[in-house]
Amino acid sequence: MTEAAKPIRVALLGCGTVGTQIVRLLTEQADDLAARVGAPVELAGIAVRRANKPRPGVPAGLLTTDAAGLVTRDDVDVVVEVIGGIEPTRDWLLTALKAGKSVVTANKALLAEHAGDLFAAADATGADLYFEAAVAGAIPLLRPLRESMAGDRITRVMGIVNGTTNFILSAMDETGAGYAEALDEASRLGYAEADPTADVEGYDAASKAAILASIAFHTRVTAGQVHREGITGVTAADVAAARALGRTIKLLAICERVEAGGDRPGEAVAVRVHPAMIPRSHPLAGVNGAFNAVFVEADAAGQLMFYGQGAGGAPTASAVLGDLVAVARNRVVGGRGPRESAYADLPVRPIAQAATRYHISLDVADRAGVLAAVAAVFAQHEVSIAAVRQEGRSSDASLVIVTHSAPDAALRSTVDKIAGLPFVHDVVSVMRVEGEEL
Ligand SMILES: NC(=O)c1ccc[n+]([C@@H]2O[C@H](COP(=O)([O-])OP(=O)(O)OC[C@H]3O[C@@H](n4cnc5c(N)ncnc54)[C@H](OP(=O)(O)O)[C@@H]3O)[C@@H](O)[C@H]2O)c1
What we know:
Blueprint: E1 8-13, H1 17-28, H2 30-37, E2 41-47, E3 63-64, H3 67-71, E4 78-81, H4 89-98, E5 102-105, H5 108-125, E6 129-130, H6 142-148, E7 154-160, H7 163-175, H8 179-188, H9 197-200, H10 203-217, E8 227-228, H11 236-244, E9 247-259, E10 267-279, E11 291-298, E12 302-309, H12 313-333, E13 355-365, H13 370-380, E14 385-393, E15 396-403, E16 406-407, H14 408-419, E17 424-433
Parallel strand pairs: 1-2, 1-4, 2-3, 4-5, 5-6, 8-10, 10-17
Antiparallel strand pairs: 7-9, 7-11, 9-10, 11-12, 13-15, 13-16, 13-17, 14-15
The structure holds NADP nicotinamide-adenine-dinucleotide phosphate (NAP).
NADP nicotinamide-adenine-dinucleotide phosphate (NAP) is lined by residues 14-19, 47-50, 53, 67, 82-84, 106-108, 133, 137, 311-312, 316.
């Protein structure tokens, strides 16, 4: 570092769970950061909603409620955004990028809808746009996909990217609790927000899946194009059925390179978020509590797994600081980080064409001909059966069927038909299956 190195001045938008930790790390590690960047990194201002809220460790003189004014200040080089939400954050970040400020953000909802606009604004002025913390918190994932694997061809990204739902499903698996009880426990321990909708309905995971798919397949994918199912319908019976088969249930985000299908030649991208049974021997099955893990498959690299804390103030701040060092260094030495890479522009396969394997658990009368009749309904709907297990329990029996990959619509009509058969007492569980065949 030359003595005259001009400081890199940072506008911090938001000083809550993550922002407070960013302020702490910027202060505690000021000397190391300066050495890594080649110039001191200084806070120019901190935008918050409530100026008078007590914030121990945060310099009061830097606080402002004027985020719009802060992002365009002449003495600001980089804007770090940890407020969240789409508006007015989107507007502030577009303004910052258009003014030539580089942006680091943890905002998955924004990136999953408006990455195109933000990258275009960054391109217009040569600014950087980094967002490692938007997916899987502390886990270095986007940079490996964007940079380390830039020479490879990624075929699949599959992972657990939402800690709240993973905590709930882990609790259901460990204790046999129902969904509502496990959600209460997650709220009590601070793992679920007062309004858990974004997490439990899969919106948060869908945003992350869209970002992952966009980067992995060099194609713009938005959250609305992701097939999304949450965990609110997962029952204790589903979890017990999984356990009986040596499986567990996880909310998975799955991004795949697939055949376009129909009359379209070539490849497409399929992106889905839903609960699924996976074998207990699968590495993702051992990811419990609020942790995240993501599996990546690529032609040359083979299989890679990324694991760690997917949320929390300090872990998320770690990812933000990593990005901040990168963009600050780019300012000091000149040059830019990676831009949007959407050149492949693959079609996103329509949700209606989603096909997965299913596990169906039925309570049926224990008498001759039941299995054949059930199998006939599957055949009528062209849903092929991979495995069947029947266990008698005095007058009734448990019948478990695992299908080969089947379109959603065919599976739904099969189950509707079966539910109406006179000897079927109950459809106990219908759940997607991922991982190897039973
Ligand atoms: N928390 C995590 O574990 C985590 C993990 C990964 C990514 N993220 C992402 O990081 C971002 C921040 O999350 P967080 O948990 O730190 O949120 P948070 O604790 O709710 O903090 C939000 C901050 O933004 C400020 N703010 C809200 N509206 C504002 C406005 N209109 N103008 C100025 N400031 C405003 C708030 O000000 P006041 O302090 O005055 O209320 C607060 O300081 C979100 O995009 C989130 O998705 C969070």
